[in-house]
Amino acid sequence: MTKEECFYLGKIVSKYSYKGEVLVKIDADEPEIYENMESVFVSLGNNLVPFFIDKCVLHKSSLLRIRFEEVQDESAADNIMGSELYLPLKFLPKLTGNKFYYHDIIGFRLEDHVHGDIGIIQGVNDSTSQALFIAKKDNKELLIPINDEIITKVDRDTKTIHVTTPEGLVDLYLG
Fold it and tell me: Domain named RimM N-terminal: which ranges (predicted)?
């Protein structure tokens, strides 16, 4: 299993008990849906290693308290401290309507209600305060903000995202 076949679930942030339990900060809107996991992949070095779960409960709002079968004491917990957890993409909850996962919309066409086809989504830049579609049109790169005011419809059947871009934005790139 490679990271490309998985999604980032969270990171081990602290030890919880002397019996090797750890707290994992979950990167999800609904962390409670991950309480019944049987296993996860733990990133150790350049490898994803499967770890089986004895016990997993929600701890406060976005933390999971996990006891792994392979981790029975504090020193074993120290060895995985700070590690990232991953799950196979097939375990992502299905999204509907205008919600989407960034990896799902690569290759979708952006259709602006004024300018028409404004490019094919090549990726998403989420390292800025505002996530951006990275689209290509006629060898030009466009950066279009991802937010509810701009996205009017996500059509999975035609692989098209309909947008209403702010006036002048598309002209900056294609004008």
Answer: 9-88
What is the model's pTM?
A: 0.69
How do residues 86-136 score in pLDDT, each as one tens digit? 999 888 888 889 988 888 899 999 999 999 999 999 999 988 889 999 999
The CB-side HSE value for 159 (13 A sphere, CA atoms) comes to 10
Q: In angstroms, how far is CA 2 from the centroid of its own chain?
A: 15
Cα atoms found within 13 Å of the Cα of residue 124, Cβ hemisphere only: 17
For tokens 């929600």, the residue is 58
Q: How many CB atoms are located within 10 Å of the residue 93 CB? A: 10
What is the rounded distance in angstroms from the CA atom of residue 99 to the CA atom of residue 22?
31
End-to-end alpha carbon distance in the chain: 44
Q: Which residues contact 84 (CB under 8 A, 6 or more apart)?
A: 8, 9, 10, 11, 12, 42, 43
> How many other β-carbons are positioned within 10 Å of the β-carbon of residue 121?
20
Q: What is the pLDDT of residues 35-62, one digit of tens each?
A: 989 999 999 999 999 999 999 999 887 8
